[in-house]
Design a protein that fits this description.
Helix 3 runs parallel beside helix 10 and helix 4 packs parallel to helix 5. This protein is α/β, with parallel strands linked by helices. The protein is built from 14 helices and 14 strands.
């Protein structure tokens, strides 16, 4: 073309969680029975939505108002309800106009990072959830900036490293947290969160926290909200209903702005997101109207507690099965519904393999592995071809370490146990293949 029309950050737009489905579909067409453990959709994995929640939604569906536009910021009664919940915790205080709805948190992340000044960078965790790291890299037209989540400290962030990164890179304008974390399942301690806020205060930054899993913590892990510790620092929290109701198909999320008026630059940034949403008119009306009715129901807290306890049980079960496997590190998750298996350095190489009896499947796996050089991608493709289990390579999460993320979402107890027992056996067999190459 006469002009190059490709955005400078187009090369950063990668999403292996979905991309690997394309490869899995090819294997499934060849007769491989797939166990899709690559994406965090509880409904797809068999979780049933309680009838009382369905009844609330069904009643709203019968109301013509659910089919209309709503105000740009979101349904007023819903924003008032959510602001009251924040204020009831006793930390940062917000009003309804400090809440802005989006069509899912992917939309919120894209807007929040896309409307930053090009030179302003957000430093985020590594491993990093792909939506965040890709959006930040695309915004800047460069590789994402990261700080390390330390597996030797249960995946808590290295605050000393974070502080040094911030200190010596004046382009950094904000710090991203994901709490509870995806992909590691770590829940940040209050000390960690207060440490991050202290760094932001020292260097005049804002804090951005993805809290979509904040109501899914278990086995004694605390659920400390950003609003509980933000103090006088500017910040924003991203929340949604896709994981906790769960209602992923609603595509309904929102941003809560904290201390928006403390800094005129941050206030103008917040206004730019509202202005951008005005160009779209509004976000989806029906799920917004459902939020106060569902979350305000006396049955909602027990619903959350039951789900969290179940994920906690599955986390303990999975770690018990994997704990005796050599060559890997597994930290028991405390929140969300993922588990990250980290390969010890040198434990997997590009010379390892697994037996795949079907030659057609073997050819497809060979094609996959020739395209990707990372050892954990090779393992994931062989795992998929040999067993049908689909997981996501850790190196695809903006991480230099190798491993994989698997969900805790399978509702069939027998099938879930088979999945993790098969993983344990396959990891042993895969590492043993080194001696035969």
């Amino acid at each position: 073309m006469r002009r190059n029309i490709v955005h400078i950050g187009a090369g950063e737009l990668t999403y292996a969680i979905r991309e690997i489905v394309e490869q899995g579909d090819r294997l499934e067409a060849l007769g491989v029975e797939m166990a899709w453990e690559n994406i965090g959709d509880p409904v797809q994995k068999g979780e049933r939505i309680p009838d009382w929640i369905k009844d609330i939604v069904a009643d709203l569906v019968r109301d013509d108002s659910s089919y209309a536009y709503c105000p740009t910021r979101g349904v007023p009664a819903t924003r008032e309800f959510l602001a009251a919940r924040v204020n009831a915790r006793g930390g940062a205080r917000i009003g309804p106009d400090d809440i802005l709805f989006f069509n899912g948190l992917g939309d919120a992340v894209s807007k929040a990072l896309g409307f930053l000044r090009r030179e302003a960078r957000i430093i985020g965790p590594s491993p990093a959830y792909s939506t965040h790291s890709s959006a930040e890299g695309a915004h800047a037209g460069d590789h994402p900036l990261t700080y390390t989540l330390d597996p030797d400290k249960g995946w808590q962030p290295d605050l000393d490293e974070l502080r040094q990164n911030v200190r010596y890179n004046p382009a950094i304008a904000g710090i991203l947290l994901i709490n509870p974390d995806n992909p590691t399942g770590v829940v940040y301690s209050r000390d960690t969160l207060e440490g991050v806020v202290a760094i932001a205060r020292e260097f005049d930054l804002f804090v951005m926290c993805d809290e979509v899993y904040i109501n899914i913590t278990y086995n004694g892990a605390p659920a400390v909200h950003l609003s509980d510790v933000i103090g006088d620092v500017c910040g924003l929290s991203l929340k949604g209903i896709s994981k906790e109701i769960p209602w992923p198909g609603s595509r309904c999320g929102w941003v809560e702005f904290y201390n928006r008026e403390v800094d005129p630059i941050f206030a103008r940034f917040a206004k730019s997101l509202v202005d951008a949403k005005m160009l779209e008119v509004c976000s989806t009306t029906l799920p917004q109207r459902a939020i106060p009715l569902i979350m305000g129901d006396a049955r909602y807290a027990p619903h959350l507690a039951t789900r969290a306890a179940e994920f906690g049980r599955r986390a303990v079960e999975a770690c018990a099965i994997l704990s005796g496997v050599r060559g890997i590190t597994v930290n028991e998750p405390q929140g969300a519904f993922y588990l990250t298996v980290l390969f010890d350095r040198g434990a997997v190489t590009n010379s390892m393999s697994l037996p795949i009896p079907d030659r057609r499947v073997q050819r497809v796996v060979d094609e996959f592995t020739q395209k990707r050089a990372e050892p954990d991608f090779r393992f994931v493709y062989y795992l998929m071809g040999a067993t049908g289990i689909v997981v996501v390579p850790l190196s695809s999460f903006c991480c230099e370490r190798h491993g994989f993320r698997i969900t805790l979402l399978e509702c069939d107890d027998e099938r879930r146990r088979w999945t993790f027992e098969t993983l344990a056996r396959v990891i042993r067999d895969y590492q043993a293949s080194r001696a035969n190459t």
